[in-house]
Amino acid sequence: MAVPRKKTTPMKKGQRQSHDALTAPAYVEDKESGERRRPHHIDLKTGKYNGRQILAPKSDV
Fold first, then answer.
1. Interstrand relation of 28-29 and 36-37 (parallel, antiparallel or unpaired)
2. With a threshold of 0.85, does the pTM exceed it?
């Protein structure tokens, strides 16, 4: 069984764990509708992506 030769220092532990932090998802304001949406995602309310109609608009029924 492999045994570490020396104890891992707090600095090395911190460097390894620095990428484990959770980040909040980014949102952008849609230019046409003003709604918030995720970048590079289709706006589900209007069905548009990058100025083009991709899906049928969602009806408020």
1. antiparallel
2. no
Q: Report whether 28 contacts 39 (CB < 8 A).
A: yes
pLDDT for the residue numbered 45: 85
Residue 61, Cα to own-chain centre: how many angstroms? 30
Q: Considering only CA atoms, give the Rg of the chain.
A: 23
Q: Is 8 buried (19+), middle (13-18) or exposed (0-12) by CB count in 10 A? A: exposed
Mean pLDDT, range 25-35, rounded to an integer: 87
According to DSSP, the β-strands at 48-49 and 28-29 are unpaired
Where do the domains of the chain lie? 26-61
